[in-house]
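Summary for the steering committee. The consortium agreed at its last meeting that each partner would contribute one worked example illustrating the joint modelling workflow. Our contribution is presented below. We chose a case with several input lines so that the handling of multiple components could be demonstrated. No manual editing was applied between input and output; the record is shown as generated.
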Amino acid sequence: MDLPNILKLVYRNIKVNVDPGTLIILIGLPAMYLVFFGYGFGSMIPTTGGTTAFLTFLTPGIMSVQCLMAGTVGGSMLWADRRWGMLAQLLVGPFTRLQYLLGIMLTSLVFGLAGALVMLVGAYLLIGSLQLTLWGALVAFGVIALGSIFFGSLMLLIAGLVKSNNAYNSIQIFVIFVVNFASTVFYSFNPNLPLPIQVLFQANPLTYVANAARGGFVGSFPVSDIWQVPLLVVETVVVLAMATRVYVRSNISFV
Amino acid sequence: MVLQPRESLTMSGDSTEQVIKVENLKHTYDGKYFALNDLSLGIKKGEVFGLLGKNGAGKTTLIKVLTTLIRPTSGKLSILGMDPNHYGKEIRRRIGVVQQGESFDFTTVEGNFDIYAVLWGVPREVRLQRKDELIKMFGLQDVRKQRSFDLSGGQKRRVQVAREMMHDMDILFLDEPTTGLDVFMRRELLDSIKKEVRQGLTVVFTTHNLEEADYFCDRVAVVDQGKILAMDTVENLKRLYRGKKTVEVTLSGADAAAFFAKLGEKLPNSEIKVEGSSAIILAEDSKEALQRIMELSQVSGIQVEWLNVRKNTLEDVFIGSVSRGEGAE
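What follows is the complete predicted structure of the assembly.
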């Protein structure tokens, strides 16, 4: 049986990118966040239940980080394909530019969900127990899938617009840093924060993912945050459309 | 060892059928300079067609257009009877392309073959057999488990060409596949490709190496500044210049350009290609050319440092075509 073209590309992307370097970025870094921030902040932040309670709070946040990390891997895939000639080679094969783009996007999605699952298992091993209903898990993984598409599209868009690999890497590091730490991944939103940082928190799509995933874990979602998931859907559609436009309609330079 | 005959993807079996038709093709990257400038050609099924030209002549741009990677600015184009503007994907499904630059997945030689086969939908049993045959045919047995990026330049080129042959195709585009290879490796690679060509494949091959075109191609087109300057079988192109001999001359001192300009006036039936203080002259009458050179040398006081007369080669045809093209500008 012949696989659909997009699935062939996903197979190829996974096969080529499951290497130690990618796995360290994808799983190693968030796993370290889970361990070091979990125990470090857990011992410092006065929480009822101590470190275990903070780890429980942190788990859906770290799972959400996976969609950002998977997105950056997607952007890197595109750069690697440009750098090593495979983008041009694939585009003279039986694939359309849109299929190539969706192939990377789907690969980001697979990496995002797989990474989140690994973080969930890691958290379970650290904490010893996790309260998560089937419905809650569906909500958490669903929103992480959506976030993976958003960040996958965003990083592909940046990779398409930036002219050099070094520039792309610098932007990627900046995005990872700002998006991770100006979000509710590691700590709750605090209205006492300076206004610019409050705005950054509220405008950060990773905040929406982390809040929704956390809502799935605790089984409830604050009414004040209910607008976040629809906004994330809209943002995802817009960024996906922009990334698609960059790749399908414009001339891609083959480095 | 020769690969098992493969099922042709082309429906028609007519060997005179033109699988590539190009009419008045133009392409510009910047709106000013035309990398392809009113270029027309036709390539028959089963033909090994060479695009011969110096660097920047437009060969790679033409390959990019023919393989649907870029759209031409204007002109008519038909690949396997289809218009690339509307049937790009269908065309790409029936062609193979070995690009000028490296293109590898970050895995082993075998891994590259396997991934490529999956991408092209080659059934598992066929893939395993074909991979072994190609690895053997292209002499890659010792490096099959090595990462592609760790291979030498010659091995990488062989992997790229062999990998492309994992899937069935009607036309194979080879964009300077022997660049960077030594003379032995070139010959080995071309021999390996030749075995495949015997299966009836149409091959479009770009090179600036004239011996290669002579050895490998049924027909060649000499391309310069995006135009075709000459197009025929290698033998016919040589025959055009059979009566002529090539005079090579190098002058010492300045004002060589004026010397060669005057020489051109005195030898109206000869073609002169000037490169600094040297020139290659395709002369109707080599004795007359020698005489005129010596006369001019005496009159102008410019010394002739080196002078050589020899029979023409394909390289001379190439130089002659290019210099005629430049003269027509």
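The radius of gyration of chain B is 23 Å. The CA atoms of residues 253 and 302 of chain B lie 6 Å apart.
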